């Protein structure tokens, strides 16, 4: 498990492109036959991916957690963006189709990720945050994640937001997780932009057609910075940072947060005129 330290707005403003990428971009989320994990000190979120092929992949217990097992003091969200898959939690098997999400509660000792067909492997995007109590392990399919329509085609930000783990969906200690799909012809996400100083956020950009990319924007509203992102790469978004993106085509992304509360609507909009 690699590690990222938390840095503040002043330090961020002084970074060059390589420095910005080193702190805020996670280039490798899905490796066939492996689990990739990055520990960020923003709200101690762990961001990663599990891409099982022929064999199942067990959630490891990285030494740096100093825990008896990964979820001894943590909760986990896993959202599948690949082929059909299964997650086995302490002997119970959950089937996850495309864009289904499993919440795994604190105290679950053995978690294994499997693909139904190694030729079309599942890709489980993983987020894990510290947890103070046990909530039941719960599956929510995309069909159950009530869609909310936002934006318009005229402003190129027409999109559907699916919420899975939040105060009115799957119960959790602090993890919030969902997915946004842009409509064809729309390219702007999280526009108008916002910050939420009470929670960090992580983004996985995916469903980008071959050769298309996203320009992700971060930084304080008065000091923004661009970062080019490829398909299936993730971004760390500090609580003080805007996070908005513009693609060279439509795309999707998984957003996830940890921090003070579970209310999706807890965000402070930034007026376009105030962005610099
Ligand atoms: O496109 C959007 O708007 C989003 O998906 C926004 C994220 O859900 C988010 O930033 C939640 O805080
Ligand atoms: Zn946000």
From TrEMBL:
It is an enzyme of class 5 (isomerase). It catalyses: 5-dehydro-4-deoxy-D-glucuronate = 3-deoxy-D-glycero-2,5-hexodiulosonate. Pathway: Glycan metabolism; pectin degradation; 2-dehydro-3-deoxy-D-gluconate from pectin: step 4/5. Its EC number is 5.3.1.17. GO terms for molecular function: isomerase activity. Binds 1 zinc ion per subunit. CDD domains: cupin_KduI_C, cupin_KduI_N. Keywords: Isomerase, Metal-binding, Zinc. SUPFAM superfamilies: RmlC-like cupins. The keyword Transmembrane does not apply. Gene3D superfamilies: Jelly Rolls, pectin degrading enzyme 5-keto 4- deoxyuronate isomerase, domain 1. Zn(2+) binds at residues 194, 196, 201, 243. Its cofactor is Zn(2+). It holds the Pfam family KduI. The keyword Ligase does not apply. Catalyzes the isomerization of 5-dehydro-4-deoxy-D-glucuronate to 3-deoxy-D-glycero-2,5-hexodiulosonate. NCBIfam families: PRK00924.1 (NF002091). Belongs to the KduI family. This is 4-deoxy-L-threo-5-hexosulose-uronate ketol-isomerase.
